[in-house]
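Box S1 | Example of a co-folding query
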Amino acid sequence: MKFDTPATTNPIDKGRVVGVAHDRIDGPAKVTGSAPYAYERHDAAPNAAYGWIVGSAIAKGTIAALDLRAAEAAPGVLGIVTHANAGKLGKGNYNTAPLLGGPAIMHYDQALALVIADTLENARAAAKLVRIDYAPQDGKFDLAAEQGNAVKPPDGGFGGAADSAVGDFDGAFAKAAVRIDQRYTTPDHSHAMLEPHATTAAWNGDKLTLWTANQMIAWSVGEVAKTLGIPKANIRLVAPYIGGGFGAKLWLRADALLAALGARQIGRPVKVAIARNQIPNNTTHRPATIQRIRIGADKNGVIDAIGHEVWSGDLPGGGTETAAMQTRLLYGGAHRMTAHRLATLDLPEGNAMRAPGEAVGLLALEVAMDELAEACGVDPVELRIRNDVQYDPEAGTQRPYSSRKLVECLRAGADRFGWAKRNPKPGKVRDGRWLVGMGVASAFRNNLVGKSGARIGVDGAGKVIVETDMTDIGTGSYTIIGQTAAEMLGVSLDDVIVRLGDSRFPASAGSGGQWGANSSTAGVYAAAMALRAKLAEKAGYPIDQAQFDDGLVKLGNQSQTLAALAGREGLWAEDSIEFGDLDKRYVQATFGAHFCEVGVDIDTAEVRIRRMGGAFAAGRILNPKSARSQVIGAMTMGAGSALMEALEVDTRFGLFINHDMAEYAVPVHADIPEQDVLFIDELDDKSSPMKAKGVGELGICGAGAAVANAIYNATGLRLRDYPLTIDKLLRAQTA
Amino acid sequence: MKPFTYSRATSVADAAKTAASTQGARFIAGGTNLLDLMKLQIETPTHLIDVNHLGLDRIEPTPEGGLRIGALVRNTDLAADKVVRRDYSVLSRALLAGASGQLRNKATTAGNLLQRTRCPYFYDTNMPCNKRKPGSGCGAIGGISRSLAILGVSDACIAQHPSDMAVAMRLLDAQVDTVGADGVARAIPIADFHSLPGDTPHVETALKSGEIITSVTLPKPIGGTHVYRKVRDRASYAFALVSVAAVFGKDGGGRFAFGGIGAKPWRTPSADAAASSGAKAVAEAALSGARTTHHSDFKKTLVERTLASLYRQKEARP
Amino acid sequence: MPSDHLTRRSLLQGSAAIAAAAPALVPTGAAAARPTAKEGTGMIPVELTVNGREVHLQLDPRTTLLDALREHLHLTGTKKGCDQGQCGACTVIVEGRRINSCLTLAVMHDGDKVTTIEGLGTPEKLHPMQRAFISHDGYQCGYCTPGQICSAVAVLDEIAAGIPSHVTPDLDKVSLSNSELRERMSGNICRCAAYPNIIAAMNDVAGETKA
Ligand SMILES: Cc1cc2nc3c(=O)[nH]c(=O)nc-3n(C[C@H](O)[C@H](O)[C@H](O)COP(=O)(O)OP(=O)(O)OC[C@H]3O[C@@H](n4cnc5c(N)ncnc54)[C@H](O)[C@@H]3O)c2cc1C
Ligand code: SF4
Ligand code: FES
Ligand code: FES
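Box S1 (continued) | Returned holo structure for iron/sulfur cluster
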């Protein structure tokens, strides 16, 4: 099905199942521990051996000598994979550094060997016996030091052009009545999903099966094929349950490749999990940024000139953190510029993490807006409303938003949060030992769409079965896909069986960039339309008059059951949704407004969040229950980025030194109080037949800035280097 | 983890004897620190002596009016003990500020005292670390050192002692009771128990090879208002940037011990002497000789602020 | 017992004169020295009662309780998030107490009763806490979830038993509140951050048990 004209009324609009809050259908499996994750496939690969990854001890250089004798002789060792015996390997399109290093080493903890043994204990111990002599080389590890050497990256990729310019930014900025010109920095972030990257691999002849924690099944089949040099048809990926991803599992990573190589070498299934303390340096992370924001406005805060420049670094061949992208679209202003510059660094490879670009771009932009509000003496909510724009401000009115409810979000959110009670003067509100402040920030995240397929059938018992390679990484895919099928075929959610995460199923858009929910359910919609046609035809009813209700296909007062129509052998249909240029003709994005109240200890500068709330517009909310969880989860990650999350770069050795979950702090229960989420009614007919948009990343966008702005309101301290930790607050206070 | 053999000791004498006669033997209590380090091969014992079944899990009054806490009393039980809550509440508070509920259910009194530093370079076996590998250098000096110590440090090592419990023990003038490999018992004042790094940062305590901790004894209660304040960015399940244990007397006097800033649980008589002069004076006394890095310099301010917070807390109480 | 962080260098001059308290030198008899290696193999017999079922294992002494459950008993409901005590995914209830099963050896639990998520309930017969997690959406990816649920069940017991926490205002007056639940659950990290939903689920169950 091609989606190239705005959706009209369709079966989803019934809203009987879709749009209604449902418990997750995968809930019972998850809360009882019976949902199998990648490392737990005793059912599928009962005799899997254990692989343990040996990572590089240096950041850059080559292997001078590799001595495996002691490891090979260790108890239980079945084999060792290294570059020397792995055979010729390609490199996936989405990998910057080879997943198996050697002789060249591109980053710290790059995998150099996989030691396989009969038990985990033996594999881990033997891995320590692999002796590697290194010939180290000097590397570049300090983004600030390399800022001057950063270059304009090639256009394209996920981000589009590196630079943009409209009007005369410099001139307008110079003339503006009120000017903000500030530098902000965000550190490297780690996804820190709870399930480590893990894979169980088994070969059957030349056919490979990978039970693997991967968000993007179809992509990754291609990546495995390219890396191993085998046909895609010989590869099966299975990922019914994934313990979080946040972008970390978009790619083929070392666990999967090495498990496959190991299993081939020893002729037996092998499973590999990347050890927690290897994850930050072995896998990908969100790159650090340096950002400069300049805003020129009139006395009332109406923006005339807005500029956003971003510097980030990556390995040679890597990409930028596209943190200025939202600044092209979020606020009005006739004179505009954005620029991304990329430095070469020899740190582990940077890549996408939840809301790449916006998540850190808004940490800067939305603080700059707070600074502008203060400079103009305009309420920060009102300032954002004044600068609302209903079209792409770079392209002009000919490219309107498909739907943009930022103003509604700001108003409704402010109202619910009690924003009116905020004292605009910082440092004035005290509650016991706490200085209390409130902050606001806009949320903005692009709406991306992607081709997505599904197969849907009815069996002889009238059960509806949906199969697609779409993944559920906690996002609620099982349930919204089930809801879509139930709505389309007029059955209850209990009568739908959803099967996900298997490359034998039709290729979906996968889970990433918050495109998954909208695209994959639209794919199910397309397949369901095809099945409806088949069912109607079998019933002998004209499709444009057939009704699908209560497990029946009806025409007037005649009806037939789905079960009878499907017959013993069942009835199946397959289709996919393909998107035309509606996302080019219209800007499609999701919006929201974050509000936060913090307390800052008057003595110690400890920051504790007291309340968070927000209003969000993201098209049709398919399952308000799981959508709310996506949003609060993302708000929490945003709070983490504001208050504690930072991979610390040791610029001498070239690694993230705090590479475990004790040293890389993410929020715990005690950090997170009540979180209130309001969804603003919105149907976006240009986004998909579902009239939905993504919501999984929107919640992180701006959340951290609201925290930072609340800290300012509480204390009068404006910090621009994230995270806003006690040491920085104290230094600012005593400066 | 390197292979090791395992045995359960049935008595202290048996444990000490096994330790003395077995090369590379080590006691294991809760295991929450030792096993973590063994997985990383930072610790590589060849034999583990399980001391969990020695009956060292009792808390009993001493004839002197104090309290003897068995070495194997779990942190949860110690914090919840009625007498500790009543007479040594700073100890309860310190324990409850540490780790997580699950960890405290396992962690023991002796193990907590003996837990090793959380210096990230110590934890990464590819990095230089004089404590882990004497003579290899110190990765943290000139590296990332925000969480590390500023007092009692040396050119060889700036690691912090991470325990909360030990700070309260230090404050309360606890004594560590041990039995040596030779079967001889002794008592070590907590002040002498942990050693400073000097040029031998791998030497961390006064324990001798094979010596087992049997209990920790608290002198009789000192009364006063007990407070423990732990400061960290994350609200829970995080080690201290700075922590202060204090007991304020009715007479305006007080005593203080500090965590997060010392190479060992930190206490100075001059800080106690300054108690009646307020937070600033106490901080100044406590911080004499402090050596900071450009990452850890804020800790000096934070010590003073934490003390100020404590004084405020004290005043707020009846 | 030479070890890598203790040396024989005498540091004790100052402390030699301190009178020693009487240590507990008496064997308690509570535990026999049962687990000893089978000659030659290095394997040790371990007997556990897991979810009410007695199991007999021969284990490498290096095997953690977590790996014994997951790799030997195929009880994979208990998760490994870090293997370092830093996340709480591996939380199980041993002899009535929640612990991190990644930081304890299986042999240390010879003779112990272990309850895992599988022992609390099944999809057909959910434990009230499991049901509450579903109805409050107290999870997303599900990976931290078994640990959260085991902790949640134990936390309510701990509060009932009067065990104080870091945020208990008066150590002798332990009661249930949101801040108590949050503090006590902080050893269970949820990166999907279903935190408020988990607290809601716990309140729900606590209310039910009270009623
Ligand atoms: C993620 C995480 C967070 C933590 N956060 C904190 C925190 O905030 N504050 C804090 O204070 N602690 C914290 N801890 C540390 C925790 O308190 C310690 O791991 C625990 O107290 C160690 O006790 P254990 O009984 O498990 O010791 P074990 O690991 O069993 O032993 C530790 C050491 O003591 C030796 N030993 C044990 N018993 C005896 C004995 N009777 N005689 C002689 N030697 C003995 C062992 O040989 C070993 O060397 C944290 C730990 C983790 C993993
Ligand atoms: S501070 Fe001490 S523990 Fe840390 S690297 Fe230096 S020597 Fe090692
Ligand atoms: S796996 Fe045990 S605490 Fe993370
Ligand atoms: S549900 Fe994913 S980590 Fe908690």
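The two ends of chain A are 62 Å apart (CA to CA). Chain A touches chain B through 42 residues (CB under 8 Å).
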